[in-house]
Amino acid sequence: MGRAILLDKVNIPGIRAFEVYREHGGYKPAGKALLGMTPAQVQQEVIKSGLRGRGGAGFPTGLKWSFLDRKSDKPRYLVCNADESEPGTFKDRYLMEKLPHLLIEGLILSSYALGVKTCYIYIRGEFKYLVGILETAIHEAKKNNYLGEKILGTDFSLEIYVHPGAGAYICGEETALLESLEGKRGNPRIKPPFPAYKGLYDCPTVVNNVETLATVTSIISMGGDAYSKLGIGKSTGTKLMSACGNINKPGVYEIEMGLPVEDFIYSEEYCGGIKNDRMLKAVIPGGSSVPILPADLILNTAKGQPRLLTYESLAEGEFISGSMLGSGGFIVFDENACIVRNTWNLTRFYRHESCGQCSPCREGTGWMEKILYRIEHGQGRMSDIDLLVRIAKNIEGNTICPLGDAAAWPVASAIRHFRKEFEEHIK
Amino acid sequence: MLKVTIDNILIEVEEGTTILQAARMIGGKVVPPAMCYYTSLKGSGGKCRSCLVKVAKGSAKDPRPIPKLVASCSTPVQDGMVVENTISAEVQEARKGVVEFLLINHPLDCPVCDQAGECDLQDLSYGFGMEETNTREPRREYPVVDIGPLIKLHMNRCIHCYRCVLAAEQLTKKRAHGMLYRGDTIEISTFIRTAIDSDFSGNMIDVCPVGALTDRSFRFKSRVWFLNPMDAHRECSHCSGKVAAWMFGNEIYRITGRKDTFGELEEFICNECRFEKKDISDWVIEGPRKIKRQSVISGNHYEQMKKGSIIHPIEGTTEPQE
Amino acid sequence: MNTGNSVNHHLFVRENKAVSFSDETLEKVRSLIRRYPEGRQKSALLPVLHIAQEELGGFLSVDTMDYVASLLNLNPIEVYEVATFYSMFYLDKMGKYVLEVCHTGPCAICGGEDVLQHIRDYLHIETGETTPDGMFTLKEVECLGACGNGPVMQVNTEFYEHMTARQVEKVIEDLRQKQGEEGTSKGWAEQFS
Ligand SMILES: Cc1cc2nc3c(=O)[nH]c(=O)nc-3n(C[C@H](O)[C@H](O)[C@H](O)COP(=O)(O)O)c2cc1C
Ligand code: SF4
Ligand code: FES
């Protein structure tokens, strides 16, 4: 199954350098598009590919691009979301560190399709060393006329700048990211208006994830139709999964969509099974924000079908018995892991990362954290469990941005599937 | 003009009107409570979530409902939109939750709070809250701070509406007041001290929906309900000079701006009027202010409001209440 | 920050000294400002604050923040608002090396909490404290985006991965040896080309 589309060049020595990348076919797609395709044709390939956003929400990329306000006479911006702060997710870091030019090329192609002249890469500040790596790649591309004025002799000009954040998970939310890029606190904006109309500096803006934009390079290289044949149904292509927790081989793996979860966990090619031959207890399959599933429900759906790594299969059963593919942050818990402690831990994370603008999230995350802390430290009451469920329900859907949901789901799902464990902690 | 139905009452409004504004034109019970939105402060609203409503039909063109509840204060009306507020159980539940969130860290120190009696949070919890409290966690505590000689900040009572920050930004030339830190420990900057240089800083007291920012010159002087609010005016070179003078007998206890039916200032007033003119001879007293709790369109000073008009209440629904 | 109920943010530190960047850094700051459209120099605030923290004393004093405000033509409050929002900015004097240990879920289930406890015992400091010799400050941070290599620690923004009790002792001792020497990693200003 191991199909390397994005990571096909990852093991080539020195691939981080422009020359090596180009020797191995890099920047061919950019040449092909800029010299032989119209921007609309590039966008058409992306639409055909069925590519869906890899940042978490899985929104079709071609459709998102088509929303961009092209009537406005203001400049348009493309912003690459490299904030990667969702616990369990570390694929973008890997991609940028190993293959910076793949991302730069994706940015060139996407900017060309969108008619963008300035593109920013918003990267979390903790990845300081990657700022230098990306800036070097940009510098090299510019020296070779893939960036800057009149690229490859065409009328297309583009500048890319790297912009560091400074420690705030919420800046991964696209409108908080834009605020932060404008030099402000990372408070998510109230929508509408959406970034496609009023984004960076009130100009039409597209925000996409690192992996999404890098994938555009592969799509132009192989063609949208060929890309769309990979994967299953509406989950086309390949996806980077970052696997961590109690497994033998944590790391970043490129999988073709549709790989059974069981293969992913137990195959030597991927996670290599549970560490120390313990039993699998639970998995959070798509970054800490998505619902946790117990072993039986992660391996098979409630209907007994094998669970696959696709947007649809992981969501099957909705929140009663399903979860989400999210950002592909795959966190595995063995039989010794304590679900209560982990739920408390993640809730503390969301409390710490709430921007504090809206009441349900600001107050609700803190309240849940205090209760979970008590339960974990032996001072819980039985009534706390239902109270937590009610608080989570009152946060969910009632906040400005989805961080509220992201904080509510882990608590609600942990209690749904592991209620006994909470009760035992309290007894 | 766009047609929108709120709790079965149809009204026509201008393009760009928000659901909340449309509801205020109807008036009465259908008006959602708003703790952070403030008409005259640009960029306010959307934060407290107490004005959440259900959009049962998005528009005539796209009749699908909006899956999540929306903040009525920052959602523009679409033609043919159908909104549910009091008639939606989901909205009532969510609002109860919001009230609870606003209260879990509130000190509930109403007996010693100067705002008691004119506090939006008191009204909100009385109107929409639950009877019992479910939290036993310790509440957040901040030290009490004097912000210069005129204003006191009880951060414990703050509901983080951002109104004072916006007032500081929009009424004073050089903003020195802002929100610091993040999450559930955000706090109003105590660097506000310098904002006091501005002639209009006192308005932050009036825009504060709770007792977080209070008038130091009125501290513990009287409960507001013992005072008679009178319309008063004077010649003033900074502002219109139109104020509310809160009197006990012939004595002026405090000066505030004049608030409309929805608790918003009709006009911002200057610090000289507010803090320095406490003698009855400074003022022309016009007469007692009308304080009407549930008012309708007659609610003055809503320029946008006059443009709307109720077309007809749909059969079998309650009339808007006076 | 568990169940604590009293909010005591660090008061800002005002040193009342004149601070300023070197000419070379000033040139870098100007080139950073040029990356954003005319009149949008506020956009350069985060990168400039990173440089300021690194080059002007290891934390953001009021003096430093006011200086940055003047460089970017902002009201000081605009800088305070931002500096207090982001967790990488320090508002208080730090040790020479800031040990930032990830304690979020994925690292925690791989032993992150034990590593943290070991550092506390080894250096005899609590989270948030600095050793008396001014060498080390211990901080707990949320997910550093390196969960596959957990437990993870950053020291002055450099990654240290797969930490164990023995490993962190070694890292700490190596850093002690290095005292006086400059680190090898590039500073913020050098990251931008
Ligand atoms: C709280 C929060 C954090 C997020 N963090 C990230 C992130 O770190 N990286 C990312 O690409 N998207 C993140 N997202 C999703 C973005 O808002 C946005 O949907 C995404 O960047 C769109 O790109 P895509 O369509 O290519 O997926 C986050 C969303 C929320 C609500
Ligand atoms: S949901 Fe949380 S993070 Fe999002 S805007 Fe509201 S307070 Fe901020
Ligand atoms: S949880 Fe520690 S680096 Fe991700």
Name the chain pair with the biggest interface and residue counts per chain: A-C, 67 and 51 residues
Work out the count of structural domains of chain A.
3
CATH fold field value of the largest domain in chain A: Rossmann fold
CATH top level of the largest domain in chain A is Alpha Beta
Query: H/E series of chain A, N to C?
Result: HHHHEHHEHEHEHHEEEEHEEHHHEHHHH
CATH architecture of the largest domain in chain B: 2-Layer Sandwich
> How much helix, percentage-wise, in residues of chain B?
10-25%
Distance between the termini of chain B: 25 Å
Q: Write the CATH architecture name of the largest domain in chain A.
A: 3-Layer(aba) Sandwich
Number of strands of chain B: 15
Strand content of chain A: 5-15%
What is the total domain count of chain B?
A: 3
Q: Order of strands in the sheet with the most strands of chain A?
A: 8-7-11-9-10
Strand order of the largest sheet of chain B: 4-3-5-1-2-15
Please summarize the sheet with the most strands of chain A.
Answer: 5 strands, mixed
Write a concise synopsis of the structure shown:
The complex is a heterotrimer of chains A (427), B (322) and C (193). Chain A is α/β, with parallel strands linked by helices.
